[in-house]
Amino acid sequence: MYYTDDNGKIIDMRTPLGDALEAMITDYNDMLSKMTAEQRMNYFKYEQFVEPLRYTQDIDNTTYVVRTHFDQNADKTILQRIESLVEKGSI
Question: What is the share, in percent, of the chain residues with pLDDT greater than 90?
Answer without folding.
Answer: 7
